[in-house]
Design a protein that fits this description.
- By secondary structure, the protein is of the alpha/beta class.
- The protein has one domain: 3-Layer(aba) Sandwich (Stationary-phase Survival Protein Sure Homolog, Chain: A), CATH 3.40.1210.10.
- The chain has helices at residues 15-24, 68-79, 105-115, 131-148, 183-188, 207-210, 213-224, and strands at 3-7, 29-35, 54-58, 61-64, 86-93, 120-125, 154-160, 168-170, 192-198.
- A 9-stranded mixed β-sheet has the order 3-4-2-1-5-6-7-9-8, with helices on both faces.
- Strand 8 (168-170), helix 5 (183-188) and strand 9 form a beta-alpha-beta unit.
- Helix 1 (15-24) packs across helix 4 and helix 2 runs parallel beside helix 3 (105-115).
- The protein starts with a strand and ends with a helix.
Length: 225
Amino acid sequence: MQHILITNDDGIQSPALAALAGALSGLGDVTVVAPDRERSATSHCITLDQAVPYQQLSANRFAVEGTPVDCVLAALLRILKQRPSLVISGVNCGWNIGSDILYSGTVAAASEAALQGIPGIAVSTYPHGDYTSAAQIAGRIATHVLEHGLPPDVILNVNCPLKWNGEFRLTRQGRRSAEPLTDYEAISLGYVSISPLQINRTAHTHFEHFSRWPEQLGAWQAAKL
């Protein structure tokens, strides 16, 4: 039996969170561990040097006095008896595209899952959009991930358009403009945007540019002495 952990940054009372839990219920056991109130734009913030309080609201529903990342850690280290097969964060009430992902608690929760060796998906949709549709889309993607997995240290950032054209598009992170093959372009054209994001932020493609810096900086330091 698969076990799915879901969380968000909009809080335990979010109707979009409830829609997601309902959509995933047929895939396995679902546990909701979410902030006790809205924690939007908290990025990867965590609580240090103290245990984060939480309250059990029902058999599989917990409210945590902390950030989305706190929720994931509390679930894995203190609440769950079984390690989840998948962590899904959402459905966020607002897109997480372009530079939004740097601030997003929704994306951070999925990223923390990846850091802990668990596949993570962040799902967002238009503010006050069709949460049921977005949750069903999340369920379809979750099914595929449970069957095929994700590469290590990679999460999926999923954004659902206001009016879905019924198709998916693989995208890269954009800059809030409709550049080709970006998340922004995809949702503006009615596609569900799926962006694979890596946790390791090393700029591998620019390594050559910086290759002589250590030598140059060493020479500069020697000249100063």
